[in-house]
Amino acid sequence: MKYAYYPGCSLEKNSAAYDVSVRAVADVLGIQLVEIDDWNCCGATEFFSQDELVACSVVARNLALVEPQLNQVVAPCAACYLNLKKVDQLMVEHPRMNAHINEALAAGGLKYQAGRVRVRHLLDVIVADIGEAAVRDKVVRPLSGLRVAPYYGCQWVRPMDGVDNPEYPMKMDELFKWLGAEVVDYPVKAHCCGGHMTQISEPQAFELIRRLLQNAVDYEADLILCMCPMCQLNMDGYQNRVNHFFGLNFNVPIVFFTQMLGVAFGLDFSKLGFGKELVAAKPVIQAKLGAA
Amino acid sequence: MSKPKGKLALYWAASCGGCEIAVLQLDAKILDVAEAFDIVFWPVAVDAKVRDVERMADGEIDVCLFNGAIRTSEQEYMAQLLRRKSKVLVAFGSCSHEGGIPAIANLNNKNEIFQTSYRDTPSTENPNGVYPQPETQVPEGTLHLPVFYDTVRTLDQTVPVDYYLPGCPPEADRIWDAITAILENKLPAAGTVLGDDTTVCDTCPRKRSEKKIKEFKRTWQVIPDAETCLLEQGLLCCGIATRAGCGALCPQVNSPCIGCYGPNNGVQDYGARLMAALASVIDANSPDEIQRIIEQGIPDPIGSFYRFSLAHSLLRRKKLAKAGE
Amino acid sequence: MVTHQGHKHSSKFLAEVIANTPGGERMVHCLQCGSCGGSCPSGADMQYTPRALFAMINADRRDEVLSANTMWSCVSCYFCTTRCPQKVPITEIMYTLKRLAIRDGMAKGEDAPALAKTFTDLVEKYGRAYEVGIALFYLGLKKPMSALRAGPMGVSMFLRGRMAILPQKIRQVEQLQAIIKKAREIGGAA
Amino acid sequence: MSEPFEPKIVGFLCNWCSYRAADLAGSARIKHAPNVRIIRVMCSGRVDPTFVLKALALGADGVMVAGCHPGECHYLEQNYKAMRRFHMLKHALQAMGVDDQRVRLVWASAAEGQQLADAIDQLVEDVRRLGPLNWPANWQEDAQRLKALEKIAHEHAEAMEVLS
Amino acid sequence: MAERVGVYVCHCGSNIAGMVDVEEVARWAGANLKDVVVARDYKFMCSSLGQAMIEEDIKKEKLTRVVVGACSPHLHEKTFRRACQNAGMNPYLCQMTNLREHVSWVSVDRKLATEKAKALVSASVERVKRQAPLEPMYVKVNPATLVIGGGIAGLQATLELADAGYHVYLVEREPSIGGHMAQFDKTFPTLDCSACILTPKMSEVGQHENVTLLTYAEVEEVSGSVGNFKVKIRKKARSVIYQKCTGCGICSEKCPRKVVDDVFEAGMGTRKAIYTPFPQAVPRVPVIDRASCIWFERQKCGACKKLCPTDAIDFDQQDEVIEVEVGNIIAATGWKMFDCKRIPQYGYGRLANVYTSLEFERLCNAAGPTGGKIVLRDGKTEPKEVAIIHCVGSRDVKYNEHCSAICCMAALKFGHLVLEKTQAKVYSFYIDMRTNQKGYEEFYQRLLEEGMVFVRGKVAEVTDAARKPSEQGKLIVQFEDTLLGKQQRIPVDMVILMGALEPQADAKEFGLKLGISCSMAGWYTERHPKLDPVATMTDGVFVAGACQGAKDIPASVAQGAAAAARVQGMITKGKVMIEPIVASIDEESCSGCRICNTMCPYNAIEFDPEKEVSRVITALCKGCGTCVASCPAGVITGAHFNNDQIFAEIEGILWDAAASPHGNGSAAAKPQPTAASL
Hints:
heteropentamer; D: alpha/beta; Rossmann fold; 47% helix; elongated; E: alpha/beta; FAD/NAD(P)-binding domain; 4 domains; five-stranded parallel sheet; 16 helices; 26% helix
């Protein structure tokens, strides 16, 4: 199976672990990812606060660059995923917007036919397109005994309908049951990590991060699985500062779901980007699963 | 027979000529015709000229069987002439009745037709783009060709018609019935179509049940079952809407009715009847699904619904680019 | 098939917000139920909840709305949008309010516009996001204390190879810039 | 033309929903374009494509067919039949060169006076933009025909004189 | 012979004359329209003077047709038809056209409005000339009635009719009548014990000589029409012989198989495999739930059969389909509860102590699983704080757009019961308090006095994710207090979800059987929302109770009684008039193509396989005309809406359009341009 691949800026550097593990598990599962040539930043939420048409056009450039023979693009970052999907849908539903965006694209010699590219998240591709049997088939090191807390965040499940339940998503839960893990069913799994608030209002952001970590700890999770670089950065990168701010001592490793998928597939830790997280994950994993 | 012989005329306008042959299908009965009538005008068989007709007194011809639609000024002239000289004018065959096959050209105009016929067809060599002209100057004087109209008309859109004998061509026994009626002076009220007041299904031996159509099929897509109604097998059979009189010839040989006998009594638009009936039994309620069934199954709606009757339809022709605005 | 046209908005500002938001016409259906304000992760920090803001929009209190901190507290989690019983696209309306506030210079005292500006300027320049740039130009200038506190974290990130000192640049950055320029010319409204 | 073009549109409205919606538009004094002239039928399912063709052939510039919303037909499901026929008719009209915008199917419940008025305004506006349809002009080649016929008659008359 | 048409244009005071030049319309019609012999305008055509004028003209001028241009025919068609009839003219030769609602009231330009009025009058004149005299038809009304649904609305209707001396067949899907009301403990606002007021009605129905009670039965097929319906009813196999059973209850007592009762107990309690849903059930005859019974599982046990003192158990009993004949039908099929799991953020199904309102009804019912004690799912802990959430699945376009009408009051009732029976604090989270019937607002005031806490705000989520120690182990309700404009969290022990009232899942499908239609949401559509609330568009079929829209007990009872009164009216009259607007098929010309056979949802078209023709059963035809439009041969005629009439109307309405006369059809062509010299 062949998909266009839109890594997004975060995966280049600050979440390189996500990128390498995505590529590694895709390889194992026979998912062929063709990186969009010369893709640009999706603009996160920042362009949308300033000029909607600019925001959409910046996103649409990436859609326009998807190779003509491919009609699906995989974006591992939830924010990129939402932006790509939102702009495509906007273009389908609002002809005027569509015309304007294409007018802007034309200034760069590009055009995009609304609805041509279906935007997917890797989690959805693995669960829906690859499926249980094929995934189970690749498991060499079941994650039994490891209590994982799937964390979905916001922008994969909201506001777009249809991929998973926007209030109580289950796709990652399902996937990790196939891998043999003990899946922690905790209530805040689709609550907010604070997003860019860490840059704007730390007290506000830290409280949101604290709630997530607290709930996961209350439910005795060994580690939290992420599907978005921003969530990982907020919970992992800022965990120490959150501890400091509230006088707490969380020590919950935050990893990308693809990293643990790689572990279950028997891939080497070093090939999955482990060690880049600030709260070390390897000791916890090895303690539960035994040294690889 | 002590009665003096009647006078019969036949004429061939825009049509294929099949109607002329249909008259010959009367076989031996043609002798009875000859006995009853003097054939005073029949360009294909009798050496009488237009000027002979022009010389006749008005109403001198007892019966004129006129086949073919009206496409040129010459045909219109002849229609008017024969109308004036005949007591009874019969629109003979689909073309004069409803426009027939020639009227499908109402989907185009004169220029498009000329372009195709005199330039674009692969067998045509016409580098200078010479098209027929109503008048051409030659050293000997002016040559005339009839004016070619944009729109094909039926006979009754040109002159008043007394009776209609439908069919492409009309069936021999129907022709004989008509002639007998004329001979015995048992003609029905003027304006009558000489056929049955019901549709082809009435004479079709196939088994019919309730209809629900999920897909319209083209004839090449299926080998139809010989017992069941062709429409129920998805074939676009026009028998439901077509006047009976042919004896359901086509369906009997596994071929769907194409509608040459035209509409039933009182019907204003033949194609609309087919459209209404067929659409009604489409087995879908979602607009997208309905659209899909129609667009996939009926790529050429006019050819399918108005194969013989476009000129006779309410709209008569495709919108003419120059009209209106 | 029948479209609903010509709704008369007594509030000019309401009409303006609707005109600038795809799907914004749902706003007239707001029941003032507060499921947005109740759902918002930043709800406790807001001067006005989104619901209150909608009441103010209805009352045509433009200046008060555009100088509120509500939209700047929005983290785009879309809980309000999916929970709204009347399908009001609340998050999108927050973006609209941010745009109007920036355009009209009403966003004084907010950090978010500066962050957004820094972020997008860098993207416009390089085609990709540039975190160190953001740290320098936004945190460094705007929130030096915060930058300082974040320092150790930055170092840890850097040591783990999670920070790039130099920006990544796309090849066809001129193409992107041309697109952005054109989009700005056309004008941003929906 | 000095007078502005006022489209003539025939509306076939079902007795139970759309005709009552038009009544409601009236009692609520919802002003709308006066160009749609209403013919009442019991159900949109009664609307025969012939009616639409007839109206166009007589010179109407547009036609509206209106019924209850799908699933709310007072005769249970007959408006679905109207929908099927309408799609079929549109398919044919397209082939005949009638602009899609001129013939419209509208659903309006008895409570939707405003919506029906909006739909009427929309249709009138669209048809006004398209201009007159004037369908009968499509086959009126009278000047050319008459001239040609006179010519033939004249020539034949000359020839007859020569011969006699 | 040419018709003689009279045209009457009404001023309606200034209602029409203010925007339409009515004098001009009348003058124009008289001068220009063929066959019009009288054309008048008048101030108020519907007044007795106006009618008298028409009647006089009919007699004096020997009018054969009348056209009235006035208001909507839905208002005054009957009036003018009657006037014509008084003057000896067949009422169907009078045609009304709507110059008020469709012209004057919606126009702004007097000239254009007058043009439109002319077109409408012209259309009516052309049409009316082709109208034919019609005679209304009458059928006798069978005095028996079918009531579908044994809830409070159906029971009320049944008793009203039975007490009046008419026979009623009452069909109920469940093993007992009683409906949802039987599940309740108290009823608002008077707090009557639900059972105390309901069970007497139930037993009255059970014993009434005029009632044939068919429980555990469903209507399968309805044919016929007003006055004479034939109804097929499937009596599901009870596995208990009705005539032999004494209702002693030994079988249920001894049955070893206990299952969760999802229906009556809303999942809160259990029942046996052989059971009556509740002790006061009517009839007392139990049923065996074959899906749970050990005998039907593996042919073992048979305890009930062994122990039954009257040998009433019959494992081999089969479903039985009976046919009854009735003149009228009342549908009182009720409602179902919204599936609260569809809103995951409220935690129902995930968080144990989140209850639906129906569950709570059972919880506080003295005859319920806890004996009326309000306790948590553990069966013993009394809650200290209870939150009641309104509008769960109501007033929400993602689920149900409507207001469920009863939840505010039921929430008040729950609040009262909790306050009365426990020490708990009770919160009500509402969007708008709707207490708009007699005694309701007073009840609200009473609860305010009793200390129920009212918070204006739709709850955002219910969670067990504690943020601080005080929230540990609690259900936290998060919301915006919209009156304060602040986001808040309140920890509670119990949450009650006031789930929406929804149409029955099979309402649409069942409506088709009865020939009645549903709104988009699935509520049955009444003939008129204000003026004819229990009749439907199908004559002889009435609706009552919550199947027509969410409503409370008093409203359901009122509708039950109203429907019964309508039926009694029909029975007393003895016959019903059927509008003669029906289709007919010319059998001579019908080719039997069978296109029309699937057109009629009322099965009014039958195919005669002998003659190979289709035929319209006049009594079943409702006159929609769909078959007329479908006939490919054009041999179906719709009375009063036939092709000639509509074609004429189209020609008339386009009198000023561009068309030339049309030489179509088989008639001889109309004049065409001809070469003059020939």
